[in-house]
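Example 3.2
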Amino acid sequence: MPSTGTPYDWAWVDVAVPGAPGRLPGVSMAGFRQRSPALWDITMVAYPFVTVFVDLSDEEAVVYDAHGRSRRGSVVAGLLPGDFRAAGRRVECLQIRLEPVAAAAVFGAPAELSGTVVPLQDVWGRDAGRAEDRLRAAASWDERFAIARDLLGRRLDARPPVDPEVAHVWRRTLASRGRVRVDGVADEVGWSRKRLWSRFRSQLGITPKRAAQLVRFDHAAHLLAAGHCAAGVAAESGYADQSHLNREIKAFAGLTPTAVAEAPWLAIDDVAWPASAPVSSPARHP
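Structure, written as tokens:
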């Protein structure tokens, strides 16, 4: 995808968020409608969720690019999708973030999604088109959120959940912001390190260590976006030093700490995804 668009300006975007009632565990949503006709492009910063982008645009479809391959319409981005960009004009999109445990229940094979971006119909099946039509025809964002909760809830109820031990380790990893020891959490659930590694990876598509690194990076990225200095972020997030933080940011985002702090992808998080904002961070409003 050529980077010919203008920098993303959130002032031209209406953001809708659902109310608390009816929330599904491990699932969050937000709706976006761009009012500017200008062509834009935005780069995604890796974070510890599988993401569904449902394209509800009436005009040009959103164009996604990952690994040098372009796709149009609705897609699912697995964990660590690599260099992932999106572009379009007058876009309307429902974005659904699923924790890996929820994604495993919804899609059944998150390991196959890791590191990839695929059309929604490839993982949702023949019902993907009907779901898009229902969401597009809805009269309001509240109705769209209700439809999405219903569709996802049916899948969550119909598919077997991941092992409770795997779910526990994921929750511990998220709650600790990635500062967990694999041996320690394996002991907590009564598994060997080898068994935990194998089951976690087969069910969530990522190793426990890599999951911890991703969660820690996500926390650090949000602190940087909230205006904290890199040295302080390194210390608060559990990195050995600022050089260690710089290497992790380069590995996950291909960016410098300064570029992550200014990334448009993170600039709207306190509005669209308030639960992802780090504790004690100053509010940022684009």
